[in-house]
Amino acid sequence: MLVGVIDIGSNAVRFCVSDLSDSLVSRNLPIVFQDRAKISLYDALTVSTDRRISDDVLNRLRIAISRFDKVCKALNVADENVSVFGTEASRSATNSDDILSMIRNINSRWTLNLLSQRMEAMYGAMGIASSFYEIKGLVMDLGGGSIQISWVSTVGGKFVMSDSAVSLPYGAAAIFQRLRTQRVEEIKAEIASAFALAFKSIKLPFPLKGANLYLSGGGFRGLGCLAMSVLSDDEYYPVPIINGYRCSVKDLEKVAQKQMNDKTMDKLEDVFRISKRRASQLPGILTLVDALLSVAPQIDSVYFCQGGIKEGFLYSKLSDSLKTSDPLISCTAAYARPACAKMENLLTSAMSSFTPSYISKRILPAVVNLLYYQAPYTKDTQATAALNIAVTGVLAGVHGLTHVDRALVGIILCERWGGEVFDERVIGRLCDLVVSESRGNLGLAYMFWGYYVSKLAAVLADLFPAGIVDDENRVQVGLERDEIDALRIELAFIKDDPYALAVWDKVEGLEKKVKKFRKKYDIVGVPKVSFKLTV
Q: Which domain of life is it from (predicted)?
C-alpha cells in the first residue's frame, strides 16, 4: 500500500510517498518519493499584522501541493491514502480555513488534519520512536513555531508513550524573533520554567538522572551536524547521517558554549548540512538547549533523529509487533540468498553463551542476509563496497539504524571479503566509532565477536558459494567447549567433499587470525578461540 503524506510545517513543507505493502520491510518506512518546499508559514505570519498568510505564500503553497498531487497520480497512490497535516503555523493563522479550502480544491478526497498541540506532540514522539530499534527516554521535536515534548519507551517489545504530551511555543524561528527584542537571560529563564512544568505534565515514568534525550526537527538536526563537526577529533566524522548520531550531554554543552561566541557564527554555513537560514536561527536553538540543560543537567546521552510528523504518522499505521521489530534485520532480509537461513543456523551454533546478544541476535542475522551481496563485484571493490554498505551504499537511506549498527555491519562484511581497502583510515575511523560509542570495553568486545563472525562466515559461505544449499550435511558446527575464557568450535566435514577441500586451508588459518586480532587490540573479557576439525 502506497501512502502519501504532506507535512505543512512552520519552516518548510515536506512531501513523501512511502510503501507500506511489505509487512516486514514497512518497519523501515521505505520511501518511494520525497521532497521539501522552502515555504515558511512562520515567516509569513511574522510579517503580517493580522496573522494572515498572504496570497503570495498561499499561491506558492498551492503550486507545491498541486505538483505533489500529480506525483501521487503518477505513482498510482490512491487519493484516500494521502493525508495532509497542518501544524503550529497553520493552526494559528487567522485564515487557516483558506489553506484547507485551497487543498480541498486540489484534491477533495485527501484526509486533512489540522493537528492539535497534543496530536502534534504525539506524532512527533512516534517519529522519533521510528528512528531506532529500541528507545527509552525524553523526546523533543523542534519546529519553527513550537517544540513538542513527551517520553517514549519501546524496550522489551512494548511500545508505550506519554498520554499527556506537551507543546510549547518555543520553536527555532520563534525564539530567533524574540532574541531581537528581548534579553537572552530573560528568555532562557522563561523557557527553563516552562520545561520544568512540562516534565511534570508528561508524567515521566523514569528519573531524569541518567536518562537519554532524543531530539528531532530541523533545528536540532542542524545542531547535531554542528556537534559532528566540532566534536570530531579526526578530519571528518565517518558516518555523515544525522539519524542515530549520539553525543554526551557534556559534549553538547561544550558545543553550545563554543558557538555562543558571536565570532564563530559567520563560519556556520561552511558546516555540512547547515543552511544559511538554519545558521541564523542557531543562537535561538542554543538558548533553548541552554535552558533545557539548566533544568535537566543530569541527562546522560543525546541522540539526534530524522523522524518527525510524517514518519510518526507512517509509524502509527504499523501494528504493535512491527513497531517493535528490528529495523536492522527487516532492511537486510530482501538481500538474503536461499543459503542464508542455513548459514545463520551454522553461525549461531558457533556462538558462545557469553557472546553479547547485540551480536548474536541482531548483527549476526543482518550480516548473514548480506553475505553474498558483494559477490558479483570485482575483487578490488568487494571489501570497500562492503565497508560502506550502510554509510553510502544500499543501506544508507534505511530508517532506524544507529551509527554503531552502520559501522559494525560494514566492518564485518569488509572483513568477510578480505578486509583490504584502498584507504585504511576509513575502516580505522569506523572501528574507533564502534569502540567509543559502545563505551570502551564493550565496544572492543563487539569488535572481537564481529571479527570472529566475519572470518567464520567467509569460510562457511565458500562451502555454499552459489548461495544455495545443495547438501544439508556438508558441514556441521558445534561447541566442544564454552567457557568465559575459552571457546572451542568443532567443524565436521564430509570426506573428500570438493567444497571442504577447497576451504581447508582457510579453516586451518581461522584460529591464528582470531588469536592475532585479540592480541593486537589487547581485548579482555573475551575467550581464546580454537577449532577442532573432523571429517
A: Eukaryota
